[in-house]
Amino acid sequence: MLIPEMNFDMNSKLLTPSTALAVSLVVATITPALRAADVSGFFPDPNRPVSVLAREASERNSRDQAGYRSWKWSLAAVIASQALDTASSWNMHELNPALADGSGRFEMKAATLKFGAAGALLCAEYVLVKKHPAAARVLAKLNWSSAVVTGAFAAHNYAIK
Fold first, then answer.
1. Which residues lie closer than 8 Å to 96 by C-beta, 6 or more apart?
2. Residue 105 forms beta bridges with which residues?
3. How far apart (Å, rounded) are the C-alpha atoms in residues 77 and 79?
4. What CA–CA distances, in Å, run from 153 to 18, 84, 147, 157, 160?
5. Residue 19 belongs to what H/E stretch?
6. What is the mean pLDDT of residues 9-27?
7. In 3D, which of 106, 113, 110, 112 has the Cα closest to residue 160?
8. 116: how many CB neighbours lie within 10 A of its CB?
9. By three-state DSSP, how is residue 28 classified?
């Protein structure tokens, strides 16, 4: 069997107040970014004159450049927040079994996996932005949101150290 059976005990501390707070913080942070995604530029009205569409395309290009700059800055925020979270988690008990070493601590294996996954996602973003420059605005918002959430986790780790 590929997927192990899960036994959910109602008395388990799976949903603690801090977990509920973290989940609500993630939802509250990411929802506005997804709502702000501008998809109207992908489907122009076929009944509009070409001159209007050309003017809007040039405005969209300047907006794409601003989105691209914001996306580049958001990459630095993501990397900095991941480094801060790694430093704050170092040698502490790790709840994620994929990141925990044999003794259940966050050490080199966890840091390697964490930075490897972040690097792979940022490389995928790079390829996506090169192919679709308008995606940079949405990705920048998602990156800023994830940097805030990861920074909050790091602050929590420093608080309990």
1. 110
2. 93
3. 6
4. 10, 9, 10, 6, 11
5. helix 17-35
6. 59
7. 106
8. 10
9. helix
In the three-class reduction of DSSP (H, G, I as helix; E, B as strand; rest coil), residue 144 is classed as helix
Per the listing, tokens 């259940």 go with: 104
In whole angstroms, give the CA distance from residue 89 to residue 111: 9
Residue 102 main-chain phi, psi, to 5 deg: -60, -35
Element housing 66 (H / E): helix 50-89
pLDDT score, position 1: 46
What is the per-residue pLDDT across 49-82, written as a single tens digit (0 to 9) for each? Answer: 777 767 766 666 666 788 888 999 999 999 999 9
Q: Where are the domains of the chain?
A: 66-161
**pTM strictly above 0.70:** no
Give me the sign of the Cα torsion angle 16, 19, 21, 23.
negative
pLDDT, tens digit (0-9, with 9 covering 90-100), for 109-160: 999 999 999 999 999 999 999 998 889 999 999 999 999 999 999 999 999 9
For residue 123, the SS3 value is helix
Name residue, tokens 């790079």.
126
Taking alpha carbons only, the member of 117, 125, 116 closest to residue 144 is 125
Rounded to whole angstroms, the Cα distance separating 136 from 86 reads 26
